[in-house]
Amino acid sequence: MKKITRRKFVKTSAVIGGATIIGSQFPGILKAGIPADIPDIVTVSGDDPLSNIQKLTEALGGIDQFVKSGNTIGILVNSPWKNPGTYTSPDVTLSLVNHCLESGAGKIICFKPAREGYWEESRYFDQMQKEIDSITYCSERITKAIPNGVELKKAEIFKGFLDVDVYISIPVAKHHTGTFFSGNLKGLMGVSSSNTNRHMHSPDGEYTYDKHEYLAQCIADLNLIRKPDLCIVDVIECVLENGPRGPGETIKPNKIIAGIDPVALDVYGSKLMGLDPGEILTFQKAYEHGLGEIDIDKLTIQNL
Q1: How far apart are CA 30 and CA 42, in angstroms?
Q2: Global pTM?
Q3: Domain boundaries, the chain
Q4: How far apart are the C-alpha atoms of 233 and 220, rounded to whole Å?
Q5: Residues 134-181: pLDDT tens digits?
Q6: CATH code for 6-303?
């Protein structure tokens, strides 16, 4: 895949903006108990994550569509890396955690432990010490069969991933050398063990990025285990090369996008980065599994 240029990014973003449809004007099909006039994808710009997360959930029918009183909420955050555009903004993560707790969530579980220093980078670190201290992390793993998996027939995953009442995916949209794009779908490898992840890269367990189709199929297979109840994708700053860890040139769409379809949000996020979704095999493999929609023209999109 060719490197993304800033010119291509601007051109692609303009096309997306021109094609936006307001969900309230074009009612869709009832989705997971959410009213039919709710858009498939909601986007918001600006530098106020606390306010913007609330705006996104309100546009999706309200946080109570997803979080009920006493629920255990599991969040999957991409936090291992340190280079710009390679990890989910802790401001976005803490804004969501705070929103869930204020809405009555009983417990927050972060499946994959946050790297050292991650929370401290947030502008909300001092005011949300209580919320940060309340977050627990997974350690126990189980082996889960994937009956309909094409290449991946089983996976070692965190037990908590299956136990939580609500699963919220909070990835960063970014380049990835093995899949060309990382978001909701690729991000699910955060709940599986390093042994499983090695065998997702190649059948013999070689840690390579060269087997693109095999990796894409394994990622799609892994996502059969459980779909997110809500996706909040950080598209504020995205690395365009050398993903997943970088460093590399970044682009700043300055957006957070949300919805319940992980495939559609990944497709849209990739377009915001200037990528061609048709070149990303993970999307096609996930679509073939019935995990979501890849045709943006079939979706209702609302820019706040």
Answers
A1: 16
A2: 0.88
A3: 6-303
A4: 18
A5: 999 999 999 999 999 999 999 999 999 999 999 999 999 999 999 999
A6: 3.40.50.11440
